[in-house]
Amino acid sequence: VRNKLRDIVGASTNWRDHVQAMQERKALHTLLAKRQEDLPPRRMKDSYLEVILPLGSQPEIREKYLNVHNSVRFGRILEDLDSLGVLICYTHTKQEMQQRSPLSIVTALVDKINLCQKIIYPDCDIKFTGNVSWVGKTSMEVKMHMLQLHDGDYSPVLDATFVMVARDPENKRPAFVNPLIPESPEEEEIFKHGELNKLKRIEFNTASLLKMAPTAEERNIVHDIFLNTLDTRQEGERTVSFHSRKLPPNSVWMEDAKLKGLQICHPEERNIFNRIFGGFLMRKAFELGWATACSYGGSRPFIVSVDDIMFQKPVEVGSLLLLSGQVCYTEKNYIQIRVHSEVYNANTREHHTTNIFHFTFISENEVPQVVPKTYGESMLYLDGKRHFTAIMKEI
């Protein structure tokens, strides 16, 4: 898959040649469509791809995918889904006469990944399938499925929905993509669902706690948590201080439920456009999220869902990538983790957010309640609860 992508883009495999390879891409500007109407429509089956990851039949590739629990590293699967999603979009936009694509297709958003298997086996073949399911003017929604071979049959492991955007050859401005024509009532339904997903994202973003106050119900939740942490050991209710706080039984302060990590972004981790590969960022964020859930719950956590990963800013090769994992909501065995990713520029001493990741884990045992102390932490708690509630409705 990755070799095909390099051929489509004309990317260099040597870091020292990458500047020249990018210069050569500039000439492809003339191949861009001036209007979407100038591009031939495509069908869903035109972009359909099946890819086998031969973990069972080729044991030599197993090592890269293996974790210490003798199952598959989910971070590696995130990398593969990201690459496959891009290739599916290039398949949708392929022009017969052009060997190289003038488009730079990049991941804008991981809408959701829902798992229906706790364990992915390291010695059974995996099959990925996927196609473009919805198209806007310059963006495409891709639906992918992962199945694993057991007793001669492929059984479902996960479903993923990614949103990709097309940009010009230099990855600077949006570029038009081929329209999509549904061919059956089922495809009409899938396409309509893609449109609804877009509207849902806008709605979720509009109601963000960074823009709007919490609902009345959410304010009550925060107030109840606050009352539950007041130290009432002092004489009489009137003398209870707003500052005197105590941790309720079987609970952990939110400020004590975080882990941090740092990555130096080497050329090895670059994508075909010589920025840091989105799949690599997802893998690193997932691994920090897993470690945060593991240290918090005290037992092995399993990933249930990934949702709403927004790629806000590309990460340049050579950046210092700071990752911060936070437990922001808990319920019974479930742990909702938020990983904040930012780049630090040592020359300007500036920090810029690149991604926010949301992961839902289930622990083997019931976990302590996470308790916010400040208003800011309460907003993180409510945001985590919103993500958790949306995921539980889905699965």
UniProtKB/TrEMBL annotation:
Coiled coil: none
Presence of keyword DNA-binding: no
Statement: the UniProt record of this protein carries the keyword Nucleotidyltransferase: no
Keywords tagged on the record: Hydrolase, Mitochondrion, Repeat, Serine esterase, Transit peptide
GO cellular component: mitochondrion
GO molecular function: carboxylic ester hydrolase activity; fatty acyl-CoA hydrolase activity
One GO biological process term: acyl-CoA metabolic process
Annotated ranges, domain HotDog ACOT-type: 47-170, 255-367
Domain of life: Eukaryota
Subcellular location: Mitochondrion
Family that this chain belongs to: Belongs to the acyl coenzyme A hydrolase family.
Protein name: ACOT9 thioesterase
The species this protein was found in: Thryothorus ludovicianus
Source taxonomy: Eukaryota, Metazoa, Chordata, Craniata, Vertebrata
